[in-house]
């Protein structure tokens, strides 16, 4: 299949793209349009070869997954060769995907050469990017935050909270900040349902797209400001695992002579929490109140507190002597919280030869084992981690994946009733679990 991309409308801050796709490719797209808004940066003078970088960076991972060809009029030379390299890496990561069949046809490849003057940081407010910011303060970075990637565009309430935090933080640290709003045309849920089993159980966005797409979205800002980009990959460099958000992918991206570099590449997640713990008090004296926003769940809270990502972040903060309640996690009494977490993990573990074995994805097992090694036998709250082995099985096609596939293949008229039935089953299971697990209204969701 062929995907034809065109930027068809552009104003001072907004660019809209049309996507001409056919057949099965259309099945994985929400529509035929995508748009990007660059607040506080004027993009009307940015050349087409740069303005096309964001949409190609988003759609090329889709083309690699489906074995499609992308056709575009103009593209930057450095970015074009970056994608050639990335295609080789992704094909090694996922030999079961038709990556080698994918192709990028560009009618006019343009050499742009910009000399960098400083750097920007991709800042989401999570553990990784907060540690990167704190480690890079001497370089006076600009912060770039994208709305539409982990916070959907319709979730104005959560975005407003994050934007207010970033504006305050930037003012206190005397740094410039830039916001991007992005309408993602790709149906990530469908890609998860159809390709997760070919990607060792990884979700599609994290496994193939995020490390390529997210830095690409910043290209017009980097070009206009003449800045390199530093990102904060979720996995340290020494951990070789097929995942897009790693230095193996990110460090190979270049646009118009500007580099994308993964910062803190040798630090593990718990090392990054330590960086936050070291600098948090010093910043407080300067009037800067740090917050951590690591949760992807929808809701009115800064972090839900009960998803896997929240649970491991709260445990990490506690192990580094930080109070999660003061950093954006409203979990109240920590001893009660960790009692529930212990119950959750132990009831989901299998008992093998006297040991509790908790099976999860490779990346989650890595993070939890890090926390386990930091915990101590005499710790009153999290010593239970010492008795659990966190392990992974390579192929995990969950029941939920199968349900999602069924849902997608069902005629549209039946969607509502099936969705309601699934929601009811999940709610019943959740209620039973929360009754069995505790008297609390809260329960873990992982
Ligand atoms: Zn959460």
Structure in words:
By secondary structure, the chain is α/β, with parallel strands linked by helices. It has a domain at 2-262. It contains 16 helices and 14 strands. It has an eleven-stranded mixed sheet, with helices on both faces. A three-stranded mixed sheet has the order 12-13-14. Helix 5 links the parallel strand 6 and strand 7. The protein is globular, with a radius of gyration of 22 Å. The chain starts with a strand and ends in a 9-residue tail after the last helix. Residues 395-403 and 429-440 have low confidence and may be disordered. The structure holds zinc ion. Zinc ion is lined by residues 295, 297, 303-304, 307, 309-310.
H/E element order: EEHEHHEHEEHEHEHHHEHEEHHHEEHEHH
The total of beta strands comes to 14
| Mean pLDDT over the full residue set | 88
Proportion of helical residues = 40-55%
Bound molecules: zinc ion
Termini separation: 37 Å
Number of helices: 16
Low-pLDDT windows of residues: 395-403, 429-440
Largest sheet: 11 strands, mixed
Strand order of the largest sheet: 5-4-1-2-3-8-7-6-9-11-10
Shape call: globular
* Proportion of residues in extended strands: 15-25%
Structural class: alpha/beta
Q: Rounded to an integer, what's the Rg over CA atoms?
A: 22 Å
């Amino acid at each position: 299949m062929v995907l034809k991309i065109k930027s068809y409308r552009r104003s001072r801050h907004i660019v809209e793209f049309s996507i001409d796709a056919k057949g099965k490719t259309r099945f994985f797209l929400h529509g035929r349009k995508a748009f990007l808004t660059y607040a506080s940066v004027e993009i009307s003078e940015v050349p087409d070869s740069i303005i096309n970088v964001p949409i190609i960076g988003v759609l090329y991972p889709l083309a690699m997954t489906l074995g499609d060809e992308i056709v575009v009029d103009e593209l930057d030379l450095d970015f074009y060769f970056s994608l050639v390299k990335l295609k080789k890496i992704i094909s090694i990561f996922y030999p079961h995907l038709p990556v080698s069949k994918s192709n990028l046809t560009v009618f006019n490849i343009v050499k742009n050469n910009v000399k960098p003057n400083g750097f920007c940081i991709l800042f989401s407010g999570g553990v990784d990017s907060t540690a990167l910011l704190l480690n890079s303060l001497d370089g006076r970075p600009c912060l770039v935050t994208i709305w539409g990637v982990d916070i959907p565009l319709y979730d104005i309430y959560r975005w407003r909270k994050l934007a207010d935090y970033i504006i305050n933080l930037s003012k206190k640290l005397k740094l410039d900040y830039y916001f991007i709003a992005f309408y993602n045309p790709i149906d990530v849920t469908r890609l998860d349902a159809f390709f997760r089993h070919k990607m060792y159980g990884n979700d599609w966005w994290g496994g193939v797209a995020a490390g390529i797409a997210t830095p690409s979205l910043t290209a017009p800002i980097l070009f206009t400001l003449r800045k390199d980009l530093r990102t904060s990959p979720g996995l340290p460099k020494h951990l070789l695992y097929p995942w897009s958000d790693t230095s193996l992918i990110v460090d190979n991206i270049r646009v118009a002579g500007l580099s994308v570099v993964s910062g803190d590449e040798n630090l593990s997640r718990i090392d990054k929490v330590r960086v936050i713990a070291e600098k948090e008090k010093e910043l407080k004296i300067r009037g800067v109140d740090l917050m951590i926003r690591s949760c992807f769940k929808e809701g009115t809270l800064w972090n839900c507190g009960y998803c896997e990502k929240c649970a491991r972040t709260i445990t990490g903060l506690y192990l580094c002597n930080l109070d999660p309640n003061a950093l954006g996690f409203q979990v109240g009494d920590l001893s009660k919280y960790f009692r529930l977490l212990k119950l959750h993990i132990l009831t989901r573990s299998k008992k093998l030869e006297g040991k509790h074995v908790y099976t999860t994805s490779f990346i989650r097992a890595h993070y939890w084992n890090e926390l386990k090694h930091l915990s101590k036998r005499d710790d009153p709250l999290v010593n239970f981690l010492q008795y659990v082995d966190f392990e992974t099985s390579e192929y995990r096609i969950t029941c939920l994946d199968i349900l999602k596939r069924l849902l997608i293949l069902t005629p549209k008229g039946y969607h509502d009733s099936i969705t309601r039935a699934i929601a009811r089953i999940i709610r019943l299971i959740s209620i039973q679990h929360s009754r069995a697990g505790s008297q609390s209204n809260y329960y873990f969701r992982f």
